[in-house]
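yo, Immunoglobulin V-set domain-containing protein is done. seq:
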Amino acid sequence: MFRWTLIPLCFTAHYDDKEMTAGERDQVIVGCNYFTTGTNINLFWYKQLPNRSPTFILGQYTTEPDFKKRFSATSNSTSRIFPLMIKDVRVSDSAVYYSLYYCALFGAQ
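structure:
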């Protein structure tokens, strides 16, 4: 029997503790560098408001409908970056943004 296990490897934006400021209607890019020797990784971005659980924004292959118009991210596996772009910034975008990646590990039992 074979089993897939997902292992979280990093919360990049959170550990960087960088604060950014922008004016309304600006465009912001939140950086994310990831480090892995794995080749089959999945990248994600989350938004966390104060006293709330993180909310999924997007992954490499999907974006939540509420975020599609203004949030995007494109991965570059050569540079190992997955920056989050927020267009037309609003006051309601003020939050902590987390970048997370998973490696899929294949195991035999």
